[in-house]
């Protein structure tokens, strides 16, 4: 944004942000009663697209959609353009420029994304971001804006101001980053023995600094501008640009249901409406960060849940039962992921959860899910038959609840990857590009996944042009040129029949893993 752009000096690490994906936005908009533009052919604008780590995988996933990214760092835009060219993307335009000079010439967009930019730019640029959303968002479109927020950022702000003060006289970004890390580690260590609650809270914040990569540390804790805002203040600013609050991408955080009952009652008594309720929840939960969805002020919304909204979506869940669920009775079964749980005694729900688990990570349409659950209940050995009347509504309600707790995923699109191992597997071209220089690649679920060195090398040959033998031959070549060293009983194997055998075993072991990581295209 300025003459000496800090993102030219320290580019921001490219990564996908799944909760900013147009499909996630469209899904939540659907649940809130809006009829969002179809994602498969949408127009997307990302403000502050950086290296394209978020935008470019979307462009590959949605080849019939159009994408525009703009960023103030020429270095980042040039890198993003090279990546797009290497990946063969033709549906994305990457622009270098100052957001403040952006006019209406780009036209309307169905989805506008501003992730990790609003709090980190001056007030006039913040106003411009909301102005762009107000002027260029399609009538039923959705804008995504993330920002640091109070009250939670008060403590994190202490660390921010501490590190900026401590590094104010450093010579260049690299020295500032090194000093900030050393100071954070030293202070966290000194606070470890302090039994005071405020010391423990400060230590937790300092420990977070050590876990971040250099680019995040520099742009989050050492940036010239980092201005958090209260939720109600942000909504007021958005309203001044003709926008209204749609939802938060952390869908479950909008509800007070997970609060203790006395707290829930007190908050409900003082909140005058849903927006005030959310602001009170931010206070109670000490929230630090928000990912807010906005729509046009005149958009017709209906926040009352309705099963018909879920029935138009695709459903996925990796939840597993604590024990084998009995479908033939009304015994309760508990289903868990790493972060959520749900209990149900309904045979239809238990059958549906089993179907989802067997399909994971692929999604199934809600209609297909109901039909599959009915078939399971009608199988030999079961005694309870599915009741047609009202069963879809029952399941839809529980699916919506599960979405709010992140136990269940919902989508407007079918899965964009395959678990089937084709004769000539084809992996995401973006992931193949990323694998050349990074252990972390973006899969077709718009998630970062980690690859081993062998898996990264295999990605070179997963272009749809190599069968199993071709992949093995390609790996043999990288063994022979010294890029990959393989061993048998601790001894290097430079080539020959034994090398081919070992490489074939590695390919057979890793192809299913890469498929389960959602890296393969249909």
* Helix percentage: 40-55%
Low-confidence stretches: none
Looking at the structure, what is the overall shape? globular
Task: Tell me the structural class.
Answer: alpha/beta
Number of domains: 4
Distance between the termini: 40 Å
The largest beta-sheet arranges its strands as 3-2-1-4-5-7-6
CATH topology (level 3) name of the largest domain = Rossmann fold
The CATH H-level superfamily of the largest domain is Vaccinia Virus protein VP39
Taking all Cα atoms into account, the compactness measure Rg is 25 Å
Strand content range:
5-15%
Under the CATH scheme, the architecture of the largest domain is: 3-Layer(aba) Sandwich
Average pLDDT, all residues: 93
CATH class of the largest domain: Alpha Beta
Note the main sheet.
7 strands, mixed
The total count of strands amounts to: 17
Question: Quick summary of this structure?
Answer:
This protein has helices at about 5-10, 20-30, 55-60, 75-85, 125-135, 155-165, 175-190, 195-210, 215-220, 230-240, 260-270, 275-285, 305-310, 345-360, 365-375, 390-405, 430-435, 455-460, 470-480, 495-515; strands spanning about 45, 65-70, 90-95, 110-115, 135-150, 245-250, 290-295, 315, 320, 335, 340-345, 365, 410, 440, 450, 485-490, 490. By secondary structure, the protein is α/β, with parallel strands linked by helices.
